[in-house]
Design goal:
heterodimer, A: mainly alpha, 42% helix, disordered N terminus, B: 468 residues, alpha/beta, Amidase signature (AS) enzymes, eleven-stranded mixed sheet, globular
Protein backbone atom coordinates (compact mmCIF):
# COMPACT_ATOMS: atom_id res chain seq x y z
CA UNK A 1 0.00 0.00 0.00
CA UNK A 2 1.50 3.26 -1.04
CA UNK A 3 1.62 6.03 1.44
CA UNK A 4 1.35 9.44 -0.09
CA UNK A 5 4.37 10.50 1.85
CA UNK A 6 6.59 7.94 0.17
CA UNK A 7 8.75 9.08 -2.66
CA UNK A 8 9.26 5.62 -4.15
CA UNK A 9 6.93 2.86 -5.19
CA UNK A 10 7.40 -0.85 -4.79
CA UNK A 11 7.52 -3.26 -7.70
CA UNK A 12 3.95 -4.38 -6.96
CA UNK A 13 2.78 -0.80 -7.00
CA UNK A 14 4.45 -0.23 -10.35
CA UNK A 15 2.50 -3.14 -11.75
CA UNK A 16 -0.73 -1.68 -10.51
CA UNK A 17 0.16 1.61 -11.98
CA UNK A 18 0.71 0.32 -15.43
CA UNK A 19 -2.43 -1.67 -15.62
CA UNK A 20 -4.76 0.71 -13.92
CA UNK A 21 -5.70 2.28 -17.18
CA UNK A 22 -7.72 4.97 -15.48
CA UNK A 23 -7.15 8.14 -17.32
CA UNK A 24 -3.77 8.70 -15.95
CA UNK A 25 -3.97 5.81 -13.60
CA UNK A 26 -2.28 6.12 -10.41
CA UNK A 27 -0.13 6.10 -11.24
CA UNK A 28 1.84 7.71 -13.82
CA UNK A 29 4.55 7.42 -11.34
CA UNK A 30 4.36 3.67 -11.64
CA UNK A 31 3.69 3.65 -15.33
CA UNK A 32 6.82 5.64 -15.88
CA UNK A 33 8.87 2.98 -14.32
CA UNK A 34 7.30 -0.24 -15.43
CA UNK A 35 6.68 -2.51 -18.30
CA UNK A 36 5.40 -5.99 -18.71
CA UNK A 37 8.75 -7.75 -18.65
CA UNK A 38 9.79 -6.10 -15.43
CA UNK A 39 7.05 -7.90 -13.57
CA UNK A 40 9.15 -11.04 -13.65
CA UNK A 41 10.86 -11.50 -10.30
CA UNK A 42 14.44 -10.44 -10.49
CA UNK A 43 14.11 -9.04 -13.96
CA UNK A 44 15.48 -5.71 -12.89
CA UNK A 45 17.75 -6.25 -9.89
CA UNK A 46 19.85 -3.32 -10.96
CA UNK A 47 17.02 -0.88 -10.42
CA UNK A 48 16.24 -2.26 -6.99
CA UNK A 49 19.83 -2.40 -5.85
CA UNK A 50 20.54 1.10 -6.91
CA UNK A 51 17.37 2.42 -5.30
CA UNK A 52 16.41 4.40 -8.36
CA UNK A 53 13.40 6.66 -8.03
CA UNK A 54 10.39 5.91 -10.16
CA UNK A 55 11.25 8.82 -12.41
CA UNK A 56 14.77 7.57 -12.92
CA UNK A 57 13.48 4.09 -13.61
CA UNK A 58 10.98 5.38 -16.12
CA UNK A 59 13.65 7.37 -17.88
CA UNK A 60 15.94 4.36 -17.92
CA UNK A 61 13.26 2.15 -19.44
CA UNK A 62 12.67 4.66 -22.20
CA UNK A 63 16.37 5.27 -22.81
CA UNK A 64 17.12 1.55 -22.97
CA UNK A 65 14.50 1.03 -25.64
CA UNK A 66 16.17 1.12 -29.07
CA UNK A 67 14.82 3.96 -31.19
CA UNK A 68 16.01 4.17 -34.81
CA UNK A 69 17.72 7.50 -35.43
CA UNK A 70 15.27 8.50 -38.14
CA UNK A 71 12.23 8.18 -35.84
CA UNK A 72 10.29 11.44 -35.61
CA UNK A 73 8.15 12.17 -32.55
CA UNK A 74 4.50 11.14 -32.83
CA UNK A 75 3.59 14.79 -33.27
CA UNK A 76 5.36 16.97 -35.84
CA UNK A 77 5.28 20.66 -36.53
CA UNK A 78 3.48 21.56 -39.76
CA UNK A 79 3.70 24.92 -41.48
CA UNK A 80 0.29 26.25 -42.39
CA UNK B 1 -43.03 7.34 -16.67
CA UNK B 2 -42.38 3.62 -16.27
CA UNK B 3 -38.93 2.28 -15.56
CA UNK B 4 -39.34 0.04 -18.61
CA UNK B 5 -39.29 3.06 -20.90
CA UNK B 6 -36.40 4.79 -19.15
CA UNK B 7 -34.25 1.69 -19.63
CA UNK B 8 -34.88 1.53 -23.38
CA UNK B 9 -31.90 2.11 -25.66
CA UNK B 10 -31.67 5.42 -27.55
CA UNK B 11 -32.54 3.72 -30.84
CA UNK B 12 -35.89 2.57 -29.43
CA UNK B 13 -36.65 5.84 -27.59
CA UNK B 14 -35.90 7.68 -30.81
CA UNK B 15 -38.33 5.59 -32.85
CA UNK B 16 -41.09 6.13 -30.32
CA UNK B 17 -40.47 9.88 -30.21
CA UNK B 18 -40.44 10.15 -33.98
CA UNK B 19 -43.63 8.14 -34.24
CA UNK B 20 -45.36 10.38 -31.70
CA UNK B 21 -45.77 7.56 -29.17
CA UNK B 22 -43.42 9.17 -26.65
CA UNK B 23 -43.30 12.78 -25.51
CA UNK B 24 -39.80 14.33 -25.04
CA UNK B 25 -41.20 16.38 -22.15
CA UNK B 26 -42.59 13.33 -20.36
CA UNK B 27 -39.40 11.38 -21.03
CA UNK B 28 -37.31 14.25 -19.66
CA UNK B 29 -39.50 14.50 -16.56
CA UNK B 30 -39.11 10.75 -16.06
CA UNK B 31 -35.31 10.91 -16.20
CA UNK B 32 -35.21 14.04 -14.02
CA UNK B 33 -37.29 12.31 -11.33
CA UNK B 34 -34.93 9.36 -11.36
CA UNK B 35 -31.80 11.54 -11.51
CA UNK B 36 -33.01 13.60 -8.53
CA UNK B 37 -33.91 10.50 -6.56
CA UNK B 38 -31.03 8.16 -7.37
CA UNK B 39 -28.31 10.52 -8.64
CA UNK B 40 -27.23 11.68 -5.17
CA UNK B 41 -27.57 8.17 -3.74
CA UNK B 42 -25.08 6.89 -6.34
CA UNK B 43 -22.96 10.05 -6.34
CA UNK B 44 -23.47 10.08 -10.08
CA UNK B 45 -24.34 13.72 -10.62
CA UNK B 46 -22.80 17.06 -9.66
CA UNK B 47 -25.31 19.49 -11.18
CA UNK B 48 -28.83 18.77 -12.39
CA UNK B 49 -29.89 21.25 -15.11
CA UNK B 50 -33.63 20.83 -14.58
CA UNK B 51 -34.87 24.13 -15.99
CA UNK B 52 -32.65 23.93 -19.06
CA UNK B 53 -33.67 20.31 -19.66
CA UNK B 54 -37.38 21.07 -19.49
CA UNK B 55 -36.93 24.08 -21.78
CA UNK B 56 -34.99 21.99 -24.33
CA UNK B 57 -37.55 19.18 -24.10
CA UNK B 58 -40.43 21.57 -24.70
CA UNK B 59 -38.58 23.02 -27.70
CA UNK B 60 -37.97 19.51 -29.09
CA UNK B 61 -41.65 18.68 -28.66
CA UNK B 62 -42.73 21.87 -30.43
CA UNK B 63 -40.36 21.15 -33.33
CA UNK B 64 -41.47 17.54 -33.66
CA UNK B 65 -45.11 18.54 -33.58
CA UNK B 66 -44.34 21.04 -36.32
CA UNK B 67 -42.73 18.31 -38.43
CA UNK B 68 -39.16 19.48 -38.01
CA UNK B 69 -37.14 16.31 -37.24
CA UNK B 70 -33.48 16.86 -36.37
CA UNK B 71 -32.42 13.19 -36.24
CA UNK B 72 -32.25 10.23 -33.87
CA UNK B 73 -31.17 12.27 -30.82
CA UNK B 74 -34.06 14.70 -31.12
CA UNK B 75 -35.76 14.84 -27.72
CA UNK B 76 -33.35 12.36 -26.11
CA UNK B 77 -32.17 13.34 -22.59
CA UNK B 78 -28.47 12.90 -21.79
CA UNK B 79 -25.78 13.84 -19.25
CA UNK B 80 -22.17 14.88 -19.71
CA UNK B 81 -19.07 14.29 -17.62
CA UNK B 82 -18.42 17.46 -15.65
CA UNK B 83 -15.29 18.32 -17.61
CA UNK B 84 -17.25 19.72 -20.54
CA UNK B 85 -17.86 23.46 -20.55
CA UNK B 86 -21.52 24.47 -20.41
CA UNK B 87 -22.44 28.11 -20.69
CA UNK B 88 -23.54 29.59 -17.38
CA UNK B 89 -23.56 26.21 -15.60
CA UNK B 90 -20.87 25.07 -13.15
CA UNK B 91 -18.10 22.92 -14.63
CA UNK B 92 -16.14 21.57 -11.67
CA UNK B 93 -13.75 19.09 -13.31
CA UNK B 94 -14.69 16.99 -10.25
CA UNK B 95 -12.16 18.89 -8.16
CA UNK B 96 -12.46 21.26 -5.17
CA UNK B 97 -10.23 24.02 -6.65
CA UNK B 98 -12.72 24.34 -9.52
CA UNK B 99 -15.98 23.77 -7.61
CA UNK B 100 -17.31 27.23 -8.59
CA UNK B 101 -15.89 27.43 -12.13
CA UNK B 102 -18.35 28.68 -14.76
CA UNK B 103 -17.62 29.10 -18.47
CA UNK B 104 -19.42 31.52 -20.76
CA UNK B 105 -19.51 29.11 -23.70
CA UNK B 106 -20.51 25.55 -24.53
CA UNK B 107 -17.99 22.89 -25.49
CA UNK B 108 -18.36 21.70 -29.07
CA UNK B 109 -19.80 18.35 -27.98
CA UNK B 110 -22.46 20.09 -25.89
CA UNK B 111 -23.26 22.40 -28.80
CA UNK B 112 -23.50 19.55 -31.30
CA UNK B 113 -25.79 17.54 -29.07
CA UNK B 114 -27.99 20.59 -28.58
CA UNK B 115 -28.11 21.11 -32.35
CA UNK B 116 -29.06 17.44 -32.74
CA UNK B 117 -32.05 18.10 -30.48
CA UNK B 118 -30.66 16.45 -27.34
CA UNK B 119 -31.80 17.46 -23.87
CA UNK B 120 -29.09 18.17 -21.27
CA UNK B 121 -30.12 16.71 -17.91
CA UNK B 122 -27.00 17.48 -15.94
CA UNK B 123 -23.29 17.37 -15.31
CA UNK B 124 -22.09 13.95 -14.16
CA UNK B 125 -19.47 13.03 -11.58
CA UNK B 126 -15.89 12.22 -12.34
CA UNK B 127 -12.60 11.51 -10.63
CA UNK B 128 -11.01 14.90 -9.96
CA UNK B 129 -9.07 16.21 -12.96
CA UNK B 130 -9.75 12.88 -14.68
CA UNK B 131 -7.17 11.32 -12.39
CA UNK B 132 -4.37 13.34 -13.98
CA UNK B 133 -1.82 12.82 -11.24
CA UNK B 134 -2.94 9.37 -10.20
CA UNK B 135 -5.23 8.63 -7.24
CA UNK B 136 -5.67 6.31 -4.33
CA UNK B 137 -9.22 5.04 -4.71
CA UNK B 138 -12.73 5.82 -5.92
CA UNK B 139 -13.21 8.56 -3.35
CA UNK B 140 -10.89 10.94 -5.26
CA UNK B 141 -13.67 13.25 -6.33
CA UNK B 142 -15.88 16.13 -5.28
CA UNK B 143 -18.71 13.61 -5.56
CA UNK B 144 -17.51 9.98 -5.38
CA UNK B 145 -19.59 7.55 -7.42
CA UNK B 146 -20.63 4.11 -6.21
CA UNK B 147 -21.55 1.20 -8.44
CA UNK B 148 -25.27 0.61 -9.07
CA UNK B 149 -24.70 -3.17 -9.02
CA UNK B 150 -23.27 -2.99 -5.49
CA UNK B 151 -23.11 0.36 -3.74
CA UNK B 152 -20.16 -0.70 -1.60
CA UNK B 153 -18.13 -0.82 -4.82
CA UNK B 154 -16.71 1.77 -7.20
CA UNK B 155 -18.28 2.76 -10.51
CA UNK B 156 -14.84 2.99 -12.14
CA UNK B 157 -13.11 6.09 -13.42
CA UNK B 158 -12.54 8.60 -14.37
CA UNK B 159 -15.94 8.82 -16.17
CA UNK B 160 -17.62 7.49 -13.03
CA UNK B 161 -20.90 9.41 -13.19
CA UNK B 162 -21.56 8.63 -16.87
CA UNK B 163 -21.06 4.91 -16.19
CA UNK B 164 -23.34 4.75 -13.13
CA UNK B 165 -26.00 7.14 -14.47
CA UNK B 166 -26.26 5.31 -17.79
CA UNK B 167 -26.60 1.78 -16.45
CA UNK B 168 -29.09 2.91 -13.80
CA UNK B 169 -31.20 4.69 -16.45
CA UNK B 170 -30.84 8.13 -14.90
CA UNK B 171 -30.08 9.42 -18.41
CA UNK B 172 -30.75 8.25 -21.97
CA UNK B 173 -27.01 8.23 -22.67
CA UNK B 174 -23.93 10.09 -21.52
CA UNK B 175 -20.64 11.53 -22.66
CA UNK B 176 -17.37 10.47 -21.06
CA UNK B 177 -13.72 11.09 -21.80
CA UNK B 178 -10.71 8.82 -22.06
CA UNK B 179 -7.03 9.60 -21.86
CA UNK B 180 -6.01 6.14 -20.72
CA UNK B 181 -8.94 3.91 -19.80
CA UNK B 182 -11.46 6.42 -18.48
CA UNK B 183 -14.33 5.31 -20.71
CA UNK B 184 -13.56 1.59 -20.90
CA UNK B 185 -13.01 1.14 -17.15
CA UNK B 186 -16.37 2.49 -15.89
CA UNK B 187 -18.07 0.83 -18.86
CA UNK B 188 -16.70 -2.53 -17.74
CA UNK B 189 -17.42 -1.96 -14.02
CA UNK B 190 -20.96 -0.65 -14.64
CA UNK B 191 -21.92 -2.89 -17.56
CA UNK B 192 -22.54 -0.20 -20.17
CA UNK B 193 -21.42 0.08 -23.79
CA UNK B 194 -18.78 2.79 -23.92
CA UNK B 195 -17.01 3.90 -27.08
CA UNK B 196 -13.60 5.53 -27.13
CA UNK B 197 -13.45 7.10 -30.59
CA UNK B 198 -10.33 7.53 -32.68
CA UNK B 199 -8.19 10.45 -31.49
CA UNK B 200 -9.38 13.51 -33.40
CA UNK B 201 -12.75 12.06 -34.40
CA UNK B 202 -14.57 14.21 -31.81
CA UNK B 203 -13.65 17.82 -31.01
CA UNK B 204 -12.34 18.44 -27.49
CA UNK B 205 -13.03 22.16 -27.59
CA UNK B 206 -14.42 23.15 -24.19
CA UNK B 207 -13.25 19.95 -22.51
CA UNK B 208 -10.74 20.03 -19.67
CA UNK B 209 -7.31 19.33 -21.12
CA UNK B 210 -5.28 16.68 -19.36
CA UNK B 211 -3.18 15.41 -22.27
CA UNK B 212 -3.57 17.27 -25.54
CA UNK B 213 -2.22 14.38 -27.59
CA UNK B 214 -4.26 11.64 -25.87
CA UNK B 215 -7.61 13.07 -24.70
CA UNK B 216 -10.75 11.73 -26.43
CA UNK B 217 -14.47 12.25 -25.81
CA UNK B 218 -16.99 9.52 -26.49
CA UNK B 219 -20.49 8.13 -25.81
CA UNK B 220 -21.49 5.78 -23.00
CA UNK B 221 -24.80 4.06 -23.69
CA UNK B 222 -26.94 1.02 -22.86
CA UNK B 223 -26.29 -0.52 -26.29
CA UNK B 224 -23.49 -0.42 -28.86
CA UNK B 225 -25.87 0.76 -31.57
CA UNK B 226 -26.63 3.85 -29.46
CA UNK B 227 -22.92 4.69 -29.45
CA UNK B 228 -23.06 4.80 -33.26
CA UNK B 229 -26.03 7.16 -33.23
CA UNK B 230 -24.35 9.50 -30.75
CA UNK B 231 -20.98 9.39 -32.50
CA UNK B 232 -22.65 10.39 -35.76
CA UNK B 233 -23.86 13.58 -34.06
CA UNK B 234 -20.48 14.32 -32.49
CA UNK B 235 -17.96 13.54 -35.23
CA UNK B 236 -16.37 16.02 -37.57
CA UNK B 237 -13.82 18.77 -37.91
CA UNK B 238 -13.94 21.73 -35.55
CA UNK B 239 -11.74 24.77 -36.20
CA UNK B 240 -11.65 25.30 -32.43
CA UNK B 241 -9.79 21.99 -31.95
CA UNK B 242 -6.64 21.77 -34.08
CA UNK B 243 -6.46 18.05 -33.27
CA UNK B 244 -9.85 17.32 -34.77
CA UNK B 245 -10.05 15.45 -38.05
CA UNK B 246 -12.23 16.19 -41.04
CA UNK B 247 -13.82 12.77 -40.70
CA UNK B 248 -17.59 12.70 -40.29
CA UNK B 249 -19.12 9.40 -39.20
CA UNK B 250 -22.28 8.40 -41.03
CA UNK B 251 -23.49 5.50 -38.92
CA UNK B 252 -24.96 2.43 -40.61
CA UNK B 253 -26.07 -0.23 -38.15
CA UNK B 254 -24.90 -3.68 -39.25
CA UNK B 255 -27.48 -6.39 -39.64
CA UNK B 256 -25.61 -9.35 -41.06
CA UNK B 257 -23.27 -11.95 -39.73
CA UNK B 258 -19.58 -11.45 -39.08
CA UNK B 259 -18.55 -13.77 -41.89
CA UNK B 260 -15.27 -12.60 -43.35
CA UNK B 261 -14.35 -10.45 -40.35
CA UNK B 262 -10.90 -11.24 -38.91
CA UNK B 263 -10.75 -10.89 -35.14
CA UNK B 264 -7.56 -11.20 -33.10
CA UNK B 265 -7.76 -12.02 -29.41
CA UNK B 266 -5.20 -10.94 -26.83
CA UNK B 267 -4.05 -13.47 -24.25
CA UNK B 268 -4.12 -12.27 -20.64
CA UNK B 269 -2.77 -13.83 -17.45
CA UNK B 270 -5.93 -14.07 -15.35
CA UNK B 271 -4.24 -15.95 -12.52
CA UNK B 272 -1.57 -13.35 -12.05
CA UNK B 273 -3.35 -10.13 -12.86
CA UNK B 274 -7.05 -10.67 -12.36
CA UNK B 275 -9.88 -12.92 -11.30
CA UNK B 276 -9.58 -16.37 -12.94
CA UNK B 277 -13.34 -16.85 -12.43
CA UNK B 278 -13.88 -14.36 -15.25
CA UNK B 279 -11.71 -16.16 -17.81
CA UNK B 280 -14.57 -18.43 -19.03
CA UNK B 281 -16.64 -15.33 -19.84
CA UNK B 282 -13.92 -14.19 -22.24
CA UNK B 283 -13.75 -17.64 -23.82
CA UNK B 284 -17.53 -17.68 -24.18
CA UNK B 285 -17.45 -14.28 -25.86
CA UNK B 286 -14.83 -15.49 -28.34
CA UNK B 287 -16.99 -18.55 -28.99
CA UNK B 288 -20.05 -16.40 -29.65
CA UNK B 289 -18.12 -14.30 -32.16
CA UNK B 290 -16.91 -17.47 -33.92
CA UNK B 291 -20.50 -18.69 -34.12
CA UNK B 292 -21.42 -15.38 -35.74
CA UNK B 293 -19.03 -16.24 -38.55
CA UNK B 294 -15.90 -14.31 -37.61
CA UNK B 295 -12.44 -15.81 -38.06
CA UNK B 296 -10.97 -15.58 -34.56
CA UNK B 297 -7.23 -16.08 -33.99
CA UNK B 298 -4.69 -15.07 -31.40
CA UNK B 299 -3.10 -11.64 -31.84
CA UNK B 300 0.30 -10.74 -30.44
CA UNK B 301 0.88 -7.18 -29.34
CA UNK B 302 4.22 -5.81 -30.51
CA UNK B 303 6.73 -5.44 -27.66
CA UNK B 304 7.02 -1.87 -26.40
CA UNK B 305 7.37 -0.24 -22.98
CA UNK B 306 3.73 0.89 -23.21
CA UNK B 307 3.34 1.88 -19.57
CA UNK B 308 6.40 4.14 -19.32
CA UNK B 309 5.61 5.77 -22.67
CA UNK B 310 1.95 6.51 -21.82
CA UNK B 311 2.89 7.56 -18.30
CA UNK B 312 5.55 9.95 -19.52
CA UNK B 313 3.34 11.55 -22.16
CA UNK B 314 0.35 12.03 -19.85
CA UNK B 315 2.44 13.07 -16.88
CA UNK B 316 4.36 15.70 -18.84
CA UNK B 317 1.31 17.10 -20.60
CA UNK B 318 -0.76 16.94 -17.41
CA UNK B 319 1.85 18.91 -15.46
CA UNK B 320 1.81 21.52 -18.22
CA UNK B 321 -1.99 21.62 -18.28
CA UNK B 322 -2.13 22.19 -14.52
CA UNK B 323 1.05 24.22 -14.24
CA UNK B 324 -0.70 27.15 -12.59
CA UNK B 325 -2.57 24.92 -10.13
CA UNK B 326 0.70 23.24 -9.14
CA UNK B 327 2.79 26.40 -8.88
CA UNK B 328 0.13 28.31 -6.95
CA UNK B 329 -0.01 25.60 -4.31
CA UNK B 330 -3.75 25.19 -4.84
CA UNK B 331 -3.01 21.64 -5.92
CA UNK B 332 -3.16 20.95 -2.16
CA UNK B 333 -6.92 21.53 -2.32
CA UNK B 334 -7.39 18.34 -4.32
CA UNK B 335 -9.16 15.54 -2.46
CA UNK B 336 -6.53 12.89 -3.04
CA UNK B 337 -2.96 13.27 -1.78
CA UNK B 338 -1.59 10.88 -4.38
CA UNK B 339 -3.09 13.11 -7.05
CA UNK B 340 -1.52 16.20 -5.48
CA UNK B 341 1.93 14.65 -5.45
CA UNK B 342 1.55 12.95 -8.82
CA UNK B 343 0.82 16.17 -10.65
CA UNK B 344 3.86 17.79 -9.08
CA UNK B 345 6.09 14.91 -10.11
CA UNK B 346 5.29 15.55 -13.75
CA UNK B 347 7.20 18.81 -13.38
CA UNK B 348 10.37 16.78 -12.91
CA UNK B 349 10.23 15.28 -16.38
CA UNK B 350 12.63 16.80 -18.88
CA UNK B 351 11.87 17.83 -22.45
CA UNK B 352 14.15 15.07 -23.80
CA UNK B 353 12.23 12.50 -21.69
CA UNK B 354 8.98 13.64 -23.24
CA UNK B 355 10.33 13.75 -26.78
CA UNK B 356 11.85 10.29 -26.42
CA UNK B 357 8.46 8.97 -25.29
CA UNK B 358 6.86 10.60 -28.30
CA UNK B 359 9.42 9.02 -30.62
CA UNK B 360 8.70 5.57 -29.19
CA UNK B 361 5.01 6.42 -29.53
CA UNK B 362 5.59 6.80 -33.26
CA UNK B 363 6.94 3.23 -33.31
CA UNK B 364 3.93 2.04 -31.28
CA UNK B 365 1.66 3.64 -33.85
CA UNK B 366 3.46 1.86 -36.69
CA UNK B 367 3.48 -1.45 -34.79
CA UNK B 368 -0.25 -1.28 -34.15
CA UNK B 369 -0.93 -0.40 -37.79
CA UNK B 370 0.98 -3.55 -38.77
CA UNK B 371 -1.11 -5.63 -36.34
CA UNK B 372 -4.24 -4.36 -38.08
CA UNK B 373 -2.97 -5.66 -41.43
CA UNK B 374 -3.71 -9.12 -39.97
CA UNK B 375 -6.94 -8.30 -38.16
CA UNK B 376 -10.00 -6.12 -38.64
CA UNK B 377 -10.47 -5.77 -34.88
CA UNK B 378 -8.63 -6.89 -31.77
CA UNK B 379 -10.40 -8.33 -28.71
CA UNK B 380 -9.43 -8.31 -25.07
CA UNK B 381 -11.12 -8.23 -21.69
CA UNK B 382 -11.74 -4.57 -20.83
CA UNK B 383 -10.46 -5.40 -17.35
CA UNK B 384 -9.38 -8.62 -15.66
CA UNK B 385 -11.60 -8.10 -12.62
CA UNK B 386 -14.95 -6.68 -11.58
CA UNK B 387 -15.56 -3.50 -9.58
CA UNK B 388 -13.40 -3.14 -6.50
CA UNK B 389 -14.50 -1.93 -3.08
CA UNK B 390 -14.90 1.83 -2.88
CA UNK B 391 -12.08 2.47 -0.44
CA UNK B 392 -9.70 -0.17 -1.81
CA UNK B 393 -6.28 1.10 -2.90
CA UNK B 394 -6.13 0.91 -6.68
CA UNK B 395 -2.54 -0.28 -6.55
CA UNK B 396 -3.90 -3.50 -5.02
CA UNK B 397 -6.47 -3.87 -7.77
CA UNK B 398 -4.71 -3.03 -11.02
CA UNK B 399 -1.89 -5.53 -11.04
CA UNK B 400 -0.72 -5.68 -14.64
CA UNK B 401 -1.73 -6.98 -18.02
CA UNK B 402 -0.95 -7.15 -21.68
CA UNK B 403 -0.67 -3.39 -22.20
CA UNK B 404 -3.47 -3.32 -24.80
CA UNK B 405 -5.14 -0.32 -23.13
CA UNK B 406 -1.99 1.80 -23.18
CA UNK B 407 -1.19 0.63 -26.73
CA UNK B 408 -4.61 1.60 -28.06
CA UNK B 409 -4.60 4.97 -26.37
CA UNK B 410 -1.05 5.78 -27.46
CA UNK B 411 -1.94 4.93 -31.05
CA UNK B 412 -5.25 6.84 -30.77
CA UNK B 413 -7.29 3.80 -31.87
CA UNK B 414 -11.03 3.38 -31.32
CA UNK B 415 -12.37 0.76 -28.90
CA UNK B 416 -15.65 -0.15 -27.30
CA UNK B 417 -16.35 -2.01 -24.09
CA UNK B 418 -19.52 -4.10 -24.06
CA UNK B 419 -20.71 -6.32 -21.18
CA UNK B 420 -19.62 -9.96 -21.71
CA UNK B 421 -21.06 -11.46 -18.55
CA UNK B 422 -21.19 -11.24 -14.80
CA UNK B 423 -18.64 -12.40 -12.28
CA UNK B 424 -18.93 -13.11 -8.57
CA UNK B 425 -20.82 -10.44 -6.63
CA UNK B 426 -24.05 -9.81 -4.82
CA UNK B 427 -26.89 -12.19 -5.66
CA UNK B 428 -28.68 -12.52 -7.93
CA UNK B 429 -26.85 -10.49 -10.52
CA UNK B 430 -23.16 -10.50 -9.67
CA UNK B 431 -20.90 -7.82 -11.14
CA UNK B 432 -20.40 -7.07 -14.85
CA UNK B 433 -17.18 -7.23 -16.84
CA UNK B 434 -16.56 -5.92 -20.33
CA UNK B 435 -15.22 -7.20 -23.62
CA UNK B 436 -13.08 -4.66 -25.45
CA UNK B 437 -13.19 -4.49 -29.25
CA UNK B 438 -10.50 -2.27 -30.76
CA UNK B 439 -10.29 -1.19 -34.38
CA UNK B 440 -7.90 0.56 -36.67
CA UNK B 441 -7.86 4.36 -36.80
CA UNK B 442 -11.16 5.86 -37.99
CA UNK B 443 -12.74 2.42 -38.31
CA UNK B 444 -15.38 2.78 -35.59
CA UNK B 445 -17.71 1.21 -38.17
CA UNK B 446 -16.10 -2.23 -37.77
CA UNK B 447 -15.87 -1.87 -33.99
CA UNK B 448 -19.59 -1.10 -33.80
CA UNK B 449 -20.48 -3.81 -36.30
CA UNK B 450 -18.75 -6.47 -34.18
CA UNK B 451 -20.20 -5.07 -30.94
CA UNK B 452 -23.69 -4.85 -32.46
CA UNK B 453 -23.57 -8.42 -33.73
CA UNK B 454 -22.38 -9.61 -30.31
CA UNK B 455 -25.21 -7.79 -28.55
CA UNK B 456 -27.81 -9.19 -30.94
CA UNK B 457 -26.59 -12.66 -29.95
CA UNK B 458 -26.42 -12.00 -26.19
CA UNK B 459 -28.44 -10.18 -23.56
CA UNK B 460 -25.77 -9.06 -21.06
CA UNK B 461 -26.27 -5.41 -22.02
CA UNK B 462 -29.98 -5.57 -21.17
CA UNK B 463 -29.47 -6.60 -17.52
CA UNK B 464 -30.47 -4.00 -14.95
CA UNK B 465 -28.79 -3.21 -11.65
CA UNK B 466 -30.84 -3.78 -8.47
CA UNK B 467 -31.04 -0.09 -7.66
CA UNK B 468 -34.31 1.49 -6.59
Amino acid sequence: MTSNSKSKLTRRQFAGAVAAGLAAPGLFSGALAQEKKEEKPGASPHAQQQGESFLERGRRRLREFPVPAETEPAFIFRVK
Amino acid sequence: MSEEILYLPVAELSQRIRGGALSPVELTEGYLDRLEKLGPKLGAVITITKELALEQARQAERELNAGRYRGPLHGIPFGVKDLLATRGIKTTWGAPPYRDQVFDYDGTVVRRLREAGGVLLGKLSMIELAGGGGYTNGNASLVPTVNPWDTTRWAGGSSSGPGAATVAALVGFSIGSETWGSILTPSSFCGVSGLRPTYGRVSRFGAMALSWTMDKLGPMCRAAEDCGLVLEALAGYDPNDPGSADAPFPYKPGRGSLRGVRLGWIREDWEKNGDPALAPLYQDALGTLRQLGAAVGEAKLPEFPYGPVAGTVISAEGAAAFDELIRSGRVKELVDERQQKGLGRGMQLSAPDYIRAMRIRRLVQEGMAKLFEEFDAVLSPSLLFTANRMEQDLNEVFRGGSGIGAAGNLAGLPAISVPMGFGPGPEPSGLPVGLSIMGKAFDEGTVLRVAGAYQRATDWHTRRPPIT
